[in-house]
Amino acid sequence: MRYEILGSLRIRPEPHDRPSAINARNMQVVLAALLVRADEVVSVQQLSYEIWGERPPRRYLAAIHVYISQLRKFLARDGVPGTPIVTRSPGYSLQLGEDRLDAREFQRLTGEGRAALRQHRPEQAAAAFEDALGLWRGPALGDLRAGPILDGFVAWIEQARLGCVDQHVEAGLALGRHQELVGRLYSLTSEHPLHEGFRRQLMIALYRSERQADALHVYGSTRHTLNSELGIEPGPALQNVHRAILLSDRSLDLSTAA
Question: Counting CB atoms within 10 angstroms of each CB, which of 108, 133, 159, 163 has the fewest?
Answer without folding.
Answer: 159
